[in-house]
Amino acid sequence: MQDTQVVVVQQTRNGGPGPSPVDGATVTITGPDGVAMTGIEMPDTALGRSYRVALSAFHEQLVPGGTYQLHVTLVAGEDVTGTTTMPLAQPVSSPGPTAFFNEATDTLRLVWPAVQGAASYEVRVQSPAGVYALFADTPVALPGTLRSLDGKAAFVSPLAAQVTVSAVDANYYRYYRTNGDPFTGAAVQGNLTGAQGVFGSIVVVAWRTLRVTPGH
After folding, report:
1. Which pLDDT tens digit goes with each residue over 42-52?
2. Residue 93: inside a domain, yes or no?
3. Domain CATH number, residue 51
């Protein structure tokens, strides 16, 4: 289980080039046992600033199937809240043995058990070349020739690819499905009250490492 939970609080201003980090907020995550865990504001190389909640500092850990509440209070007094219930699954913490995978001829077939509380499953292929991700409700087959909509290869030799399957809650699914669909034009569906964004849950249920080899 991931011990440190990272909460990103940003704001946009009319005419601004993009969101900027919010300083001085009070960020609290309350677990199913009622313990309120307050985040620590920290500099963040990628995000500028974030709030980190270390569960172990409160003698807590994530509970599969548990419901968590987020409460953010800004310096000006505005409140932002959200709730998520974790899918009921024990996470896979490490990948299995590395397997060789030919990008021209091989197909990766993934099968996983249904998880109570999962709205869908995110299948992610990640390597130094980039990330390919899709949502699936059934086992999937990923050919080595798989390409994204913009033509980028999902499997690139001679790189190692981390392939994960994660059970996701309805909040995560609705937000990232609409955020990543270029065809429907659907509005992004967040679950926060008082702001735009998402507070969701994701649990890795399968994990493979592939050493991608060139086709011949």
Report:
1. 988 887 889 99
2. no
3. 2.60.40
| Nearest CA-CA partner of 114 in 210, 199, 176, 203 | 203
Same domain, yes or no: 199 and 115: yes
**Calpha distance 172→195 (Å, rounded):** 16
Distance CA 137, CA 105 (A): 25
Q: Using CA atoms, how far apart are residues 149 and 12, in angstroms rounded to an integer?
A: 29
Query: Does residue 113 share a domain with residue 58?
Result: no
Are 131 and 125 in contact by the 8 Å Cβ rule? The answer is yes
Percent of the chain predicted with pLDDT > 90:
75
Q: Strand order in 4-7's β-sheet?
A: 4-7, 48-54, 40-44
